[in-house]
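SAMPLE LOG
Freezer: B-3
Tube label: C17
Construct: single chain, 421 aa
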Amino acid sequence: MNRLRNPLLLLVIFVALTLAPFGCSGAKGTEAGDGHTPDQAIQRVMTGLSGNRPEVLWQALPGSYRQELTSLVHEGAAKMDVELWNRSFGVVQKLGRLLGEKRSFILEHPMLASQVKDRGEAEANWDAVVGLLDAVASSELADLETLQKLDIGEFLRGTGRRLMERMAEASALTTTDSYASQMRDLAATRVTVLSSEGDHALVRIETPGRPAREEDYRRVEGKWISKKLADGWPAEMARAREALASFSGEEMHQNKQAVMMQLSMFEAALDQLLAAKTPGDFNDALGATLGMAMGAIMASAAQQGLSAESASPIPMITVPTRAPEPQEPDMDLMLAGAMHGNAEDEIPLPPVSGDGTIALGDLDGFVGHQIRVKGKNGLDTTGRLQAVSGDALSILKEFGSGSMSIEVSKRDVERIELIRR
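STRUCTURE (predicted):
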């Protein structure tokens, strides 16, 4: 992907950059590669990572690489929409709340219960899972102003270490504890220099349980890095710069509504789970949430052109935890239906143009009726018009397992059509 279409992608990029082998020139202490042989430099990184010290990756990069990455993070933070960013971290905080408040319900869910090797141990260490989210939500990543001047090296030394420690604790709750296994393999990895001449070296890397591999390394600005990284760096940075340059304020505006809908969808699901009073309520809510998530995935696929009918942004979803309660009958509609046939078709409506389109100013008169909305940014969806506010309209799409409530900004609407049954 060469262009950033979704503002939330920046969040992923920031986290990936700060947790990957990247950084800037503010690292303290001896840096891997300074005065080290190739095997010593690589071994230092393996040993550091196995000890939950991600800053060794930072220290292993050439200074100019770290400066480029720092610049990208700072510039990206400056372009990010504050409301979207804050809403995203609000969702993370609510997820942490759910894990803290509904611990017993979660551990009793059949899907998770089968993965937990010791319920007592899981209960005792559950705070580690909550702590992982809390560490992210309360870190420097949560504040855009801080990100605009973030020292990534110090971030890795502080928050990065805490995140790795929480990941280790969380992994320990599972039957496989893959994190601990991977760290043990890193600590046991051995590196041998097969040949070395000037700034070029061929090394052999042996990790337990895996085939030995030979890799070319290059010394760049005093740091030994893989030849693949050195050769691919200019092109990767050029692509990153192109993507960042294309991420304009206009593009942010066009994508904001869709992303806010995604966040609303997730928050609605979290609210349903938080409202559960019994394990049965929780399991019902989770089952409905997973079903609606599949609907959201299908809507997202449709947005990519797989189906024109539902090519709309992923909407806000209202997830029912029980079957809908019976509603009191609308006597006026029943009377109209008895006298004239189909009540929805026969109730007087505001005028509709010859091609079936509805003027925005007349939408109030079509509440409760099926409409089709086409938007300026590829939106094309049908559903029952729920409500019309000053600057938005709400459309309800109903399915067998629940419903989707889509909020559409009036300024993004290109055409509205009345659908007659």
